[in-house]
Backbone:
């Protein structure tokens, strides 16, 4: 909160707006103070320094301040390639990326916040620059493999974007041995002709030792599996005994027929549901969420730790929870047969799927059964006689839930919600943590029930808070940027498709869904869905209600998972305060306004880290699985075409490259206007969506790469012209939610892979 007060002594937007005016010329701090009417010199200079360190402004050699873009400079994050060169991705989104050669990095490393000077003679989208200042370092600690020679020790970073080995000076190895995975703290940053230096601060274990691979990723993303002692003490001091204090003001729902429906391996059960059919045909839907806010009080050690973590992180073999297991798996988890405190959203829904009325209140509940997705699916789809008999009291409820979920889904589809249905997979591990199977996982009616019910509750709570005009953390998903839409439409034109804006020049999410419907079942369905998803904005948290584009919902927040997401916990707290006598005072409203902005930013940032770490772990296990199948053949489909080959996605969701050099029956050339590799003499072509059979030729676990070779190329190529997709109907549209395409997409088609997809439109995400 101290940082917040210092930053708000002056409005950042006001200062930047002044500097963006045409008449502005660089001013000293004293001159700026006079112009802006500031009196506290120390606080104002600290404010300027913080903006300078964040890359918003630049201080010249004459101690004058201005905007980077007005001085031929660009501030942004450095994204390094694995080959040494890099790009600066500007903070100002309307600016183009700036290419930085390896010779012009000047000690900057991947992920650093940097200031770059644009080199003369480079303009537009072909700007080239050099790093002149590193504003913030991103890699103070690095995970890698320790190597010792006779005269030298060094660590090879696991992250291939960090292309320089880190020298370990004598006496700083912490006893690390050859091929140990270690964590290194950098003690001297790289210079033009000098590698970085560091000291080993933690030895994780030998390469190949069970669990070390996942632990390395955990450390790479600076995740902390263990909780501080004071947090554990606070959690251990909580009691799950429910007395008069706990029950005061709560509605007793313990005799209601409530169930949880989750994955078989879930331990943190934070949502239960109930449903009954009312006289007249309306549905009474209850969504009952663990009341974590009762136990995790604002400002407590538990709360501070939850704020820092912001989310639970789910790996293939373990979970790093937001809250200690004492809370996440016990006191707060809605375990069957045990009394639990909850926050209930009770909704009356019409047969057309409209929420006619609702109530929000604290409750005490007792879950009747802990159900799994598989069991509910087997009851509703397979009519499994054993399960039907075992849960005979609940079978009518499940049937009613399936009916209401279908109604709610149709209503969402009618208003234009986008439904990306990508195939997903689960990796099964043995006792040593080695992958033994990759099992495709499809959403069933059971997942659909929970997804629709959670969306309904989230929308109701978001609208309730918005109409109360109280501060809150909202889940927002904004309309795609115009340049992303242009690139997407350039890409869709290859398939005779187009998304058109409405009369106001805006895009409607329904237009995206129409495209997805049009390509359903076609060979190019997967890649079009992927490119569309990437054209959209990434869903995030915000202190303003900006709507959710992908769900076509004007009001949306996260209310349903307070055990594993901090924004949900904040929403619960604010709801509780609105129920207190007198409500929120003006002073409290101001405090919450500032806090929800901080909480939203923190949660958005930590969510990105969690997604990347989870994705990298899953990719690693998939590649490890393929390493055990070198020489085996698989069937798949071409998921991307590039000048040096094409990518194939197998039925088990693993993706690998068929390099053009392995296509020996002809000379193949990349035809950008066809998104195809075409044979020079035979005219044979390899295109997106084409089914192929491949052999696993090589696997590199460290680089997460799988190389395929085509089996029987004469039997798998497609000689049909690209015009086969040209004459198809052009789909008129308006607006939706995801990623990017066009000429940039064609250059980066590798990036349109499974690992890049987010879960922006999933109901629980």
Residues:
């Amino acid at each position: 909160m101290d940082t917040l007060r210092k930053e708000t002594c002056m409005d950042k937007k006001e200062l930047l707006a002044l500097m963006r005016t045409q008449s502005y010329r660089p001013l000293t701090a004293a001159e700026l103070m006079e112009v802006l009417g500031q009196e506290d010199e120390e606080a104002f200079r600290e404010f300027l320094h913080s903006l300078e360190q964040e890359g918003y402004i630049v201080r010249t050699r004459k101690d004058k301040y201005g905007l980077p873009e007005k001085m031929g400079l660009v501030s942004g994050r450095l994204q390094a390639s694995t080959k040494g060169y890099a790009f600066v991705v500007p903070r100002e989104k309307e600016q183009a990326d700036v290419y930085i050669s390896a010779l012009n990095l000047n000690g900057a490393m991947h992920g650093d916040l940097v200031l770059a000077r644009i080199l003369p003679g480079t303009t537009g989208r072909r700007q080239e620059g050099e790093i002149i200042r590193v504003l913030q370092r991103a890699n103070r600690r690095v995970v890698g493999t320790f190597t010792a020679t006779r005269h030298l020790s060094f660590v090879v970073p696991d992250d291939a974007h960090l292309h320089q080995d880190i020298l370990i000076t004598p006496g700083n190895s912490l006893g690390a041995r050859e091929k140990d995975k270690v964590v290194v703290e950098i003690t001297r940053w790289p210079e033009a002709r000098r590698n970085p230096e560091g000291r080993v601060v933690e030895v994780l274990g030998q390469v190949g030792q069970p669990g070390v691979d996942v632990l390395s990723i955990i450390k790479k993303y600076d995740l902390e599996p263990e909780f501080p002692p004071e947090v554990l003490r606070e959690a251990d001091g909580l009691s799950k005994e429910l007395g008069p204090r706990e029950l005061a003001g709560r509605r007793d729902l313990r005799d209601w027929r409530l169930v949880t429906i989750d994955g078989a391996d879930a331990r943190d059960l934070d949502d239960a549901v109930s449903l009954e059919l009312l006289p007249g045909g309306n549905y009474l839907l209850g969504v009952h969420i663990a009341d974590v806010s009762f136990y995790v009080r604002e400002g407590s050690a538990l709360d501070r730790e939850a704020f820092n973590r912001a989310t639970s992180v789910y790996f293939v073999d373990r979970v790093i929870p937001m809250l200690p297991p004492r809370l996440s798996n016990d006191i707060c988890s809605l375990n069957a047969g045990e009394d639990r405190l909850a926050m209930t959203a009770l909704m009356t829904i019409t047969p057309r799927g409209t929420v006619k009325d609702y109530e929000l209140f604290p409750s005490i509940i007792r879950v009747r059964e802990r159900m799994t997705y598989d069991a509910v699916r087997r009851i509703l789809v397979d009519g499994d006689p054993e399960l039907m008999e075992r849960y005979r009291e609940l079978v009518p409820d499940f049937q009613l839930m399936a009916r209401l979920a279908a109604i709610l889904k149709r209503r969402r589809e009618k208003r234009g919600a986008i439904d990306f249905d990508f195939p997903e997979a689960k990796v099964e591990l043995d006792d040593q943590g080695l992958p033994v199977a990759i099992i495709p996982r499809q959403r069933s009616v059971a997942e659909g029930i929970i997804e629709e019910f959670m969306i309904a509750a989230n929308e109701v709570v978001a609208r309730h808070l918005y109409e109360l005009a109280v501060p809150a953390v909202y889940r927002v998903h904004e309309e795609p940027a115009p340049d992303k839409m242009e690139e997407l439409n350039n890409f869709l034109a290859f398939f005779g498709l187009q998304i058109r804006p409405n009369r106001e020049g805006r895009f409607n999410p329904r237009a995206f869904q129409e495209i997805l419907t049009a390509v359903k079942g076609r060979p190019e369905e997967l890649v079009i869905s992927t490119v569309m998803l990437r054209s959209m904005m990434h869903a995030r948290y915000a202190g303003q209600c900006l709507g959710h584009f992908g769900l076509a919902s004007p009001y949306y927040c996260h209310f349903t998972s307070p055990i594993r997401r901090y924004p949900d916990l904040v929403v619960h707290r604010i709801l509780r305060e609105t129920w207190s006598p007198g409500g929120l005072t003006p002073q409290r409203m101001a405090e919450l306004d500032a806090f929800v902005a901080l909480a939203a930013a923190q949660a958005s940032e930590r969510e990105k880290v969690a997604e990347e770490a989870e994705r990298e772990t899953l990719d690693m296990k998939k590649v490890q699985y393929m390493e055990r199948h070198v020489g085996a053949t698989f069937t798949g489909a071409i998921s991307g075409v590039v000048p040096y080959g094409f990518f194939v996605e197998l039925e088990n969701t693993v993706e690998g490259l068929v390099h053009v050099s392995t296509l020996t029956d002809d000379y193949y050339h990349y035809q950008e206007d066809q998104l195809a590799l075409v044979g020079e003499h035979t005219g044979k072509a390899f295109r997106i969506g084409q089914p192929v059979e491949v052999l696993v030729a090589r696997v590199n676990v460290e680089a997460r790469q799988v190389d395929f070779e085509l089996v029987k190329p004469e039997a798998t190529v497609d000689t049909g012209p690209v015009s086969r997709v040209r004459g198809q109907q052009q789909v008129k549209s308006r607006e939706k939610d995801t990623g990017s395409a066009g000429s940039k997409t064609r250059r980066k088609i590798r990036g349109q892979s499974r690992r890049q997809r987010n879960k922006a439109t999933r109901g629980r995400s």
The first helix runs from residue 2 to 7. The radius of gyration is 28 Å. Residues 1-9, 714-765 have pLDDT under 50 and may be disordered. Residues 141 and 185 are 4 Å apart (CA to CA).
